[in-house]
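Write out this protein's structure.
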Amino acid sequence: MLNREDINQLIEAVEVWSRTNEVDGRQMLAMMSGSLGEPDKSKEMIDAFHEEMQRKSKSKREQGILLQAKLIQWRDQMDISGAADFLKKGKE
């Protein structure tokens, strides 16, 4: 079973994972802008690519937030459960 430290590490890992796509997308956009020929079509393609990368990046950040919230909820439940067990033992 996971302990408090494990959950905190998972929360940090989710934070890193949710931000990895942002850098890759910007690098790809820069490469595409330099390699395409016709300015008008290039701009359309770049704009479409940029919009798609923004959508994917936003979705990934939102997924990361939801995963972090669930991990925090589990961690808090563990803390509450541990406190309840401690109080029960104290009364016995």
